[in-house]
Amino acid sequence: MAQSILVIGGGFSGMTAALEAAELGEEVYLVEKSPYLGGRVMQLNKYFPKLCPPSCGLEIQYQRIKNNRNLQVFTMADVVSVSGEAGNFEVTVKLRPRHTPASSVDLSRLAESLSQDADNEFEFGLVKRRPLYMSAPFAYPPRYVLDKENLSEEDRSKLSKSKQIDLDQEEKNITLQVGSIILATGWRPYDTSNLTNLGAGRIANCISNMQMERLAAPSGPTEGRIKRPSDDAAPKKVAFVQCAGSRDENHLNYCSYICCMASLKQARYLREQYPDSEVDIYYIDLRTPGRYENFAQQTLADENIQAIKGKVAEVEEDLASGDVWITAEDAISGRKLKTRYEMVVLATGMQPNLAQETLPLNLSTDEEGFVSESDTSGIIPAGCAVEPLDVMKSAQSGTAAAMKAIQTVRGR
Ligand SMILES: Cc1cc2nc3c(=O)[nH]c(=O)nc-3n(C[C@H](O)[C@H](O)[C@H](O)COP(=O)(O)OP(=O)(O)OC[C@H]3O[C@@H](n4cnc5c(N)ncnc54)[C@H](O)[C@@H]3O)c2cc1C
Predict the structure, then answer these.
(1) Which residues sit with their C-beta closer than 6 Å to ligand 1?
(2) Angle separating helix axes 12-23 and 54-66, nearest 10 degrees
């Protein structure tokens, strides 16, 4: 019987699962595919219910991880094979090279000296990044990454002379023996390129809710000033389109639970930054369950934030100004509305990562890609791999998964 636990995915649910198990004395391996821990929460400006920046919750987790000898973290790591069964799995993990020193050396000057820019996934395409980069603000581990694929010949030659860069580092495989596997692979934003009817990809000032998080974040591409992409103007009249690609059998056939709260939160970002701004939220049903109802009521008490029950029928661009026209039917008054906005935010839902990725595991997923729980497989799903959740519920789900994993490795 192998006593160790493997956690796949280092977002809030995976980190919580790994820490809870490690702090109870279990040996835990945490495998994260990106260069940093924290998952999607790292990309938020603030998170409810307290509306604190992500650093406030995540830095505590990072300290706990640093101080725990039972927990080993592998970033830029992919699970490539799994054999065996509950209580006795053999797992091969591929570690991709960073090409940078193992300690947290400041390589910002070297990075700035490079010429070529690459797509910046962390900022959802709002800006570019250098091929040598820190993958996230306050990233853990705080280490630079070299994206060798995107190096120009000139940059490669410059880096080959640097003592800090090892261009020859290669990927390597490690093998882990574990008794239980926690699957905390989380979510990705629904691909807006499927939502051209709502303006995505064809109208510059039509952005997604995750882009809005980055625009509002002090660590983001505009240093926290919310500016519209076409001309950097301050958007003073903004619409949010709820259920953009959600509860729709052609896109995501479910409610992502969080999007109404996210838009209400983002309406506050705008109102705080621009006191003369106006926000309209077009919704089908405004879903703010449990204690979130208070947050919704407080937000909607602001007379410059209107919630309009009505499905958006058309989104058009005013080519001269870059403004966006929205046509909708107000379901309460029955009136057809056509309103001009300076920016539109699409409230897109959360799609499980496993809808688009496969893992070498025998998993039972539903048609949307969410993992179903199983008591006997030794593979325990957690967080948004199971269903759309907020951070608090993701953490609770991680704790519950840790308890089940411990029971498996202790043979109970
Ligand atoms: C617009 C928006 C705003 C939000 N705002 C809030 C808010 O204010 N408050 C709140 O409580 N919640 C908010 N949420 C929800 C919050 O983001 C989630 O609750 C949280 O991210 C769930 O954490 P998780 O660990 O389950 O998933 P994730 O954060 O997605 O983490 C999963 C991790 O697994 C990694 N991973 C994926 N596949 C693999 C693999 N094959 N191998 C290894 N690693 C892998 C990923 O890289 C990632 O690091 C918001 C969501 C949206 C859409």
Answers:
(1) 8-14, 31-34, 39-41, 44, 47-48, 78-79, 184-187, 209-210, 213, 258, 262, 265, 350, 353, 357, 359, 383-384, 389-392, 394
(2) 30
CA distances from residue 124 to 11, 13, 342 in whole angstroms, order as listed: 18, 22, 20
Model's pTM, two decimal places? Answer: 0.97
Where are the strands (E) in 211-357, listed by range? 237-244, 278-283, 305-309, 312-317, 324-329, 336-341, 343-348, 350-352
Pocket test for ligand 1, best of 16, 258, 261, 345 (most atoms within 8 A of CB): 258
Query: How many Å lie between the centroid of ligand 1 and the Cα of residue 217?
Result: 17
First to last CA, the chain: 12
| Fold entry, domain 191-348 | FAD/NAD(P)-binding domain (3.50.50)
Q: What is the pLDDT of residues 102-155, one digit of tens each?
A: 988 999 999 999 987 999 999 999 999 999 999 999 999 999 999 999 999 999
183-197 confidence digits (pLDDT tens):
999 999 999 999 999
Kindly tell me if the per-residue pLDDT of 375 is higher than 70.
Answer: no
- Locate the ligand 1 atom nearest the alpha carbon of residue 49 and give its number: 9
Tell me: domain 5-96+171-188+351-409, CATH 3.90.1030.10, correct? no
Ligand 1 pocket check: which of 50, 62, 121, 187 to mutate, most ligand atoms within 8 Å of Cβ? 187
- Within this chain, domains 5-96+171-188+351-409 and 191-348 share the same CATH topology: yes
Nearest atom in ligand 1 to 208's CA: 1
> What are the sequence ranges of the domains in the chain?
5-96+171-188+351-409, 108-160, 191-348
The model's confidence at residue 377, banded by pLDDT at 50, 70 and 90, is confident
* 8 A C-beta contact, residue 186 and residue 383: yes
Mean pLDDT (whole number) for 366-382: 89
